[in-house]
Each structure stands twice: as C-alpha cells, then as structure tokens.
Input
Amino acid sequence: MPHAWIDTALQYGEFLGLWLFATLLFAMLFRLLPDVRIGWKDVWIGAGFSALFFALGVFLIGFYLRLSNIATVYGAAGSLAAMLVWIYYSTLIFLFGGEFTQVYARRSGRRILPNSNAYRLRKELYDVNPDTGEEVLVDNDPVFGERPSAGEP
Output
C-alpha cells in the first residue's frame, strides 16, 4: 500500500473538520441559548473542549459499530440501543460543556451577567407542620430575587 499516508491524512482531516464544525455549533449554542452575557473567549474555549469530546465520541461509536456484530446478535434492537447510547452521550457532552464554560469564565475572573429579560430563581425551603399538615416556609434565600436590577450581577 504505497498510498497509506493518504488514508491516514483523510482520517485526520475528517476528525479536524468535525471538530471545527462542532466547535462552531457549540459556540453558537453556548453564546445564544442562555439568558446571560458571556465573553467570546470563554465561549470558544468551552466549545472547543466540548467539540473535542464530541468528535472523540463520534470516532469511538463508529469504531464500535464497525467492529461489532450488533445487527446479527440483537437485530434492530442493537441499532436502537447504540442510537440511545449516542443520544445520551451527546446530551452529557452538551451539558458538561455548558457547565465547563460557566466554571471556566468564573474561575478566570470574568463575570457572567444576566440579560435584561433574565429572571433569577428564588430558593425557598418548605416544611410540613406535623400538627396542622400545612406547608411552612422555613428558609427564603434573600440572595435570589425575582428580577435583577440593572447594575446587579
């Protein structure tokens, strides 16, 4: 095989192309979906990190499907199981990447500010009064409000 290096170069090129495309998609999702203002530097680092694991997952699931006889052993159920595992893995990568982006931005000292249309959640802890059976407010976290003011983070 005198041209084996071409196959290797194509595989690396395919991986790099997938990584670049996934990085772009993750960056758009991490920048546009949340109701916060976050810097592009943090978004690109989180998106690149997420895309790396996504591309690695694509490679590994393809490797598994090429080497296994999943269709002969389980029939159509084997393909369904592989698809469900892939959906689960992709969802985990997306959520983990979003969390990584948020933590990276905060650890780098950059603030993540809510948009003007964002609402904060109020953390309230209720307990049941054993005598009356009514719910009683035990703790109301004053840090969280309904809507942040213009200068508040």
